[in-house]
Every structure is written in structure tokens, then in C-alpha cells.
Amino acid sequence: MVLIKTKKEIPSSEITPEAVYLSRRKFIGQSSAVVAAGALAQSSLALPESWIEDQGYEPGEDIDEDITPEKHATNYNNFFEFGTDKKDPAKHAHQMTVDPWSVEIKGLVEKPGELPLEDLLKDIDLEERIYRLRCVEAWSMVIPWIGFPVKTVLDKVKPQSGAKYVKFTTLLRESEMPGTKSRFSSIEYPYVEGLRLDEANHPLAIFAIGMYGKVLPNQNGAPFRLVVPWKYGFKSIKSIVQIELTRRQPRTTWNLSAPHEYGFYANVNPEVDHPRWSQATERRLPQGLFARSIETKMFNGYDEVASLYEGLNLKRNF
Ligand code: MTE
After folding, report:
1. pLDDT for 129-183, tens place per residue?
2. Contact yes or no for 228/51 (Cβ under 8 A)
3. Which of 39, 124, 135, 195 has the fewest other C-beta atoms within 10 Å?
4. Global pTM?
5. Of all protein residues, whose CA lies closest to atom 6 belonging to ligand 1?
6. Cα 277 to averaged position of ligand 1 atoms, centre (Å)
7. Which residue, judged by its Cα, is nearest atom 19 of ligand 1?
């Protein structure tokens, strides 16, 4: 089974963690395919380096695409809390304290409260998901995440019958997040996002706590982020500290900043252009000497979500 395919033009030196990564996968695949995360509570760290390896995870389904080399996925980021340059998150996100970490569950739920990450992850089976990530800026990557369905958390906290949406909020800690202090920021903080409850319950929607076989680096949203592969990347909110079940559609960061450019749904859609650029194609990163432009697919190629939007005008609800 070929788990990682690399483009010929990428020198193998750029993909160094791969050998390690493959052997780890093999090891994990052979031993305990899925191990519950129960032992986690004994640790004093929120998510120690070796945590994922210790827990084990179910290897992801192979997809017929080249996985983006780890070095690119962890050095070309959008995490405006640390600055707007793509290199800023890798430069500054180490300042963010991710241990201890807890997530507040509030709103229309049977079990509200402040959940330490260890408790949130208790008895959760980890899986790898190799997903395309399509940014609204028309670039894309293929990333092997490690996490679990959003639904497993929602089932634990039990949404009440009136709950129709899920709102997510990122940590806001100005002393550790230089981007949040800029007077010229185009967005407001904390970063907030939302999904319809049925979208959040879709099996493809996951919370990630790792990537490339390891715990998430801070710049990718440690220790706990959302990944919704059929939507533009800005929906995949990082470093989540609050989950709220609501009756009304929550306001979301980019929609608040530029409502005519970024909608609530933000489903990847090659037929609905951004007012300032086409969404029909995307640049698959990393880009070598020759630009690799590929056609963007409806729902980023995840057709299984189409039934969520039956009867909805996707041009109007962009
Ligand atoms: N979450 C927070 N809190 N702040 C951000 O600026 N950027 C979003 C999303 N989540 C962002 C965020 C955007 S625009 C994208 S494309 C993805 O994160 C990028 O995720 P990655 O850096 O892990 O590739």
C-alpha cells in the first residue's frame, strides 16, 4: 500500500520525516490499530510529544494524491493571531501556551462545563484522515490529520433539541499572540466560526489533535482544531477554547470582516467566484518552478456531503 506519493520534482531531502513517518505508521498499524485515549489523564502535559504514538491510531484511507511535504504544511500557514504573513505562525506560535488546555462547552447542551483537554479526549479513538485543504485564497494542500469526528464530542455533551448550530471560538491571549495587537488587523478577535449542527455531525467533519503522525504544531492550531474538508480553509478554526450550541446561526470572523466576500457556508464551489478572483482552479502547494494549477472540485471533491445542501441555493448561500 503506497501511503505517501511524492512528486518527482520534490527532492527527498525535503521529505525527511517521511521515512520516520512511514515506519511509525507501519508500527502502529501492526500493533494496536485503535487504542482508547484513557491513559492520557495520567500525564501532566496536555499532549506530550509522544502522545499519538503511545495511543496509536487507525491509519487513514489512502487517497490518490500526493501528500504535501510536512515542512510546507507547517511553514506556510494562516493563523492571523500571529501575523498575516504566511511565515508568521511558524515564527511566533511557539509563544502560545497550550498546556494546560481546556474547552468550555456552553449553550443549548445537556452537559455544559469546562472540560480539560484530557477529559475531552478520554475514551476517544484516534483516526488518521488524509484530506485536501482548499483555502479561499485558491491554494491547496493534502494533509494527513489525526483526530476524531466532531460528532463524538457532540454526542458526549448532548445538544438540546433547540440547538441548530455549533459555534467555535479560538483562544485570545494578546500577550502570546502578536497579531491580535495590530491596529491594522483586518479581522476581530477572538476568531469565531460556526457550522450547522447537521454539518458538524457529518462523519467527514473532525477535530484534529495531530498531523503527520505527531501532535499538532502550534502554528497548525494546537492542541485542538476543527477540520472541515469540503469547506474553505477559514472554516477550519484553530486552537479552540469554546464550543457553544446555539439556536441561531452564529456570526463568523471572515463574514463579519467582509460579508460580501465570505459567507457562512463557505463550501468549496468552483462556480461561485470570490468577488476579486476566480475559484475555478487552485494552486497545489508546494509550487516548484512550474505552477501546478488544478481544477477545483465542488465540495472540494467530497460529494458525500451534497445531501446536506439539497434545496439550498449555493450561489446565494456562499
Ligand atoms: N483559525 C484561527 N484561529 N485563525 C486563523 O487565522 N485561518 C484559517 C484556518 N483557521 C485561521 C484559522 C485559514 S484562512 C486557513 S486556510 C486554515 O486555518 C489554514 O490551516 P493550516 O495553517 O493548518 O494549513
Report:
1. 999 999 999 999 999 999 999 999 999 999 999 999 999 999 999 999 999 998 8
2. no
3. 39
4. 0.88
5. 79
6. 19
7. 78
